Amino acid sequence: MYERYAEVYDESGQIGFSLRMLEYLDRVLERFPAPGLSMLDLACGTGTVALAFAQRGWEVYGVDASESMLQRARAKAAQMGQFLSLSRQDMRDLVLPRPVALVTCLYDSLNYMLSRPDVTRVLQRVSRALLPDGLLVFDLNTRYALEQLWGNNCFFSEGKNLATVMDSSWDHARELSTVHAVGFVRQQDGLYERFDEEHVEAAFGDREVRAALSDAGLVVEAAFECFSFDPPLSDSSRLLWVARKAGNP
Ligand SMILES: C[S@@+](CC[C@H](N)C(=O)[O-])C[C@H]1O[C@@H](n2cnc3c(N)ncnc32)[C@H](O)[C@@H]1O
After folding, report:
1. pTM here?
2. What is the best residue among 72, 112, 141, 200 to mutate for testing ligand 1's pocket, by most ligand atoms within 8 Å of CB?
3. Which of 138, 204, 156, 158 has the alpha carbon at shortest distance from 177?
4. Per-residue pLDDT tens for 14-62?
5. What is the position in ligand 1's atom list of the atom closest to the CA of 14?
6. What's domain 145-202's superfamily in CATH?
7. 107 in ligand 1 pocket by Cβ < 6 Å?
8. What distance lies between CA 67 and its chain's CA centroid?
9. Cα separation of 45 and 128, whole Å?
């Protein structure tokens, strides 16, 4: 996952999500302040959010499982003359040299955890990586999105240098969405090179997320329809969760 795709991830339009999220995150952090200017972007991908925080003077860690995504993040940081502390890690085994005031995990990256124990394990690691009163902000695709919107559908998109076919299937029994993605990347000679990736995301309901956060010692401060401050609805496709680690007594 996210190996060949990494080369074209930003250009394919995915960067648009991070840009929209950055504007929203500013408003989220106004309502739910972090107790300092250090952060970890977990599953940081190509580093767009991490770099924006670094540019504002935050001390930033970025962690991702994909070396290719991290390479893109490194190249962008070098181009901008920014320092990011990037490391390749599976989020289930996350370790940081020192705790931070804010952890973000964005663009449904936590949906890539395919079982409730894995989500709990990641959140426990996140909790350890947070300072007292530290804030966690993450978004998740809802069951409605994976089952009803992605469902058993095939999506096609064509841009200047990339065409993709996303063939999605929903496994009702396991509550998993599998997307077989085929990309065709335009080469300098005008010919197209094909790559194939399989992305599997799991759906977690409200109670499961709350239980996993609680098991990790994190207290839910809010859940919103993502990109708004409205409460979630039965047909919300993406939720934004805000949780906090307890402070020192
Ligand atoms: C949809 S992308 C989001 C990237 C970035 N957060 C953004 O907003 O553009 C999902 C990211 O999760 C990462 N990822 C998936 N499973 C992971 C794991 N077990 N540990 C760490 N990163 C993981 C992928 O490599 C990928 O970069």
Report:
1. 0.96
2. 112
3. 204
4. 889 999 999 999 999 999 999 999 999 999 999 999 999 999 999 999 9
5. 9
6. S-adenosyl-L-methionine-dependent methyltransferases (2.20.25.110)
7. yes
8. 16
9. 22
